[in-house]
């Protein structure tokens, strides 16, 4: 807990952290509500939801659709930004000599690493709750401006969306932390990790339609698990990038949880067993 409190102090005074989290909030609002509302009010073609009518876009702006809107951006650019966040939290500590200093002052490496990961998780939880609050305010304002009654989704649906979003973001943040720890810096491996998450997995899923073994392999990829978990909340009929229906909701949740446990364990073992520098 001492390491956790010290890490929170470090992170909340670090401008790069707030820039990364601010980028997520900005993009989430932009793709969640701003683009769709501009499309609906302008009466023109579809801006970000190709193939959807204006009536379908309008439904997504109302409070009842909040669970799906909350999670739809998390598998792709939300996960990518959380991976960046995890990589800079872990990797920059090597460049600045932070970890070397801490490791030689007394706390065990396991305590330091787990405290740092716990602080990272606290940031993820905080930004998720802030996103939920901002989305709730946006959809409320839109509904009132359009003269609609405030019909909120069932509490169970909203809780499921928050839980799914938390699992997705919590998987990608330790993934970035592990890559930053492995490379002892945020640049190289976070770049490769983003290429994997944003490009390679998408290409493999495209090739999987032609090659059976590749399709089977894509079912166990982290992006597939995260996208399927979001897809279980969004439901059928969506065409949001990164949101899939490959796995069922329970299987996707178990896969994401498995990746989370493996990444945290691998990070702690790696930090314990190798040289300080």
From TrEMBL:
The keyword Transmembrane helix applies. The chain crosses the membrane at residues 16-35, 76-96, 117-143, 158-179, 186-204, 251-271. Keywords: Membrane, Transmembrane, Transmembrane helix. This is ABC transporter permease.
């Amino acid at each position: 807990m001492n390491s956790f409190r010290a890490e929170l102090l470090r992170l909340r005074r670090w401008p790069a952290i707030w820039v990364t989290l601010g980028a997520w909030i900005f993009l989430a609002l932009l793709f969640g509500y701003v683009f769709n509302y501009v499309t609906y009010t302008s009466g023109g073609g579809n801006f970000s939801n190709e193939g959807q009518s204006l009536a379908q876009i309008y439904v997504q702006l109302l409070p009842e659709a909040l669970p799906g809107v909350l999670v739809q951006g998390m598998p792709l650019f939300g996960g990518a930004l959380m991976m960046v966040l995890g990589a800079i939290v872990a990797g920059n500590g090597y460049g600045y000599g932070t970890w070397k200093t801490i490791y030689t002052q007394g706390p065990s490496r396991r305590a330091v690493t787990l405290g740092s990961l716990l602080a990272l998780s606290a940031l993820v939880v905080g930004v998720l709750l802030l996103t939920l609050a901002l989305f709730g305010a946006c959809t409320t304002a839109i509904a009132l401006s359009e003269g609609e009654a405030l019909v909120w989704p069932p509490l169970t649906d909203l809780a499921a969306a928050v839980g799914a979003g938390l699992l997705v973001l919590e998987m990608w943040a330790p993934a970035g932390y592990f890559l930053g720890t492995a490379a002892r810096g945020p640049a190289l491996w976070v770049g490769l990790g983003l290429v994997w998450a944003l490009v390679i997995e998408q290409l493999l899923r495209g090739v999987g339609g032609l090659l059976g073994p590749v399709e089977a392999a894509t079912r166990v990829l982290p992006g597939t698990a995260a996208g399927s978990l979001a897809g279980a909340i969004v439901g059928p009929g969506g065409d949001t990038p990164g949101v899939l229906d490959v796995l069922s909701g329970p299987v996707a949740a178990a896969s994401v949880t498995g990746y989370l446990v493996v990444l945290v364990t691998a990070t702690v073992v790696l930090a314990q067993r190798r040289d300080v520098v």
